[in-house]
User: Fold this.
Amino acid sequence: MRRTLRFVAIGTATGFLLAGAVAGPTARAQAQSIQASNAWARRAPAMGGMGKMDKMGKMGGDKGGMSGMGGTGAVYVTLSNAGSQADALVSASSDAAQTVELHEVKNEGGVMKMRPVSAIPVPAGGKAELKPGGYHIMLMGLKHDLKPGEKVGVTLKFEHGGEVRVEAPVR
Amino acid sequence: MRGFTGIIIALLVVAAPAGAADFKGGLLSPPRPAADFTLTTQDGKEFRLGRERGKVVALWFGYTFCPDVCPTTLADLVQAQQALGKDADRFRIVLVTVDPERDTPARLREYVKAFGGSFTAVTGTPERLAEARKAYGVVAEKRVVPGTSATYLIDHSAFVYVVDPTGQLRLMFPFGMSVPDMVHDIKRLLQ
Assistant:
């Protein structure tokens, strides 16, 4: 029982931290209605770090993930919209990767199809859950390994709600 | 094609509640011998499925560029393996790449390392891999997709094929099956 209580306390504290993290300076005015919670990233190798810049400032072998040889990763998050206006996640960026895209996975008769999407809707008074087998933020051309215990910073850009910054723990 | 149809029929059979209650995953009824194949591991060693008797083997056909479905499934299988405790070494997880073009042994090695070395990843010639997929009814189609900077993506089957210790293909785990359910089924097959 005591353990449960402590767990709840930690959970609540994490909640406050996340709430603090989402109200970034660029977003303060408009982003009140969008809240990001439960952000996390899947562990992933950088695959030789081919998304890295070399000393001359040129891209490594991967050219920013264009060849598809760099490591990839996925970030998940729950987006809640407390406002009365429908919003949508329209893009994301991260220092951890050369390219960041919004993707959706669909299970069609047991065959998984992953496709890019231009926006992930967050309905008014509702939420969008980015989770495995659904929507995810795709990182391509990882600049370093995503290791459990570390965090990935991602800036989310909304159609109306400005920008929201999340720190996604890797697990 | 015949194999694929067979599996579809088997799945339809197991969808019926009677008889399948002992397993959480899709039961192949009757079981059939798991098609043997020989491929190359991330360490350049030979992997032959037929040599894995005595173990439960989980086959996952995926690729390392896949950021969502593949690592999710592999992470769940690794968790299931850890939950087996003393029986963990009687459960082998094998990633069979559907992307030999990009998934070189070196790349597979780095991928396996990121997951703590708890599974085996295998590759081979496109022909050998296609044969293995066909035998299990696995679909893998390369797609050049507009709107992404990825050169190509691969649509692929998302079942885990589970082979019992006698070499029979017994179960198919659908995507998103819970880890406790996987552990339940693996333990039953190890009994």
In short: The longest strand of chain A covers residues 97-108. Chain A is about 10% helix and 40% strand.
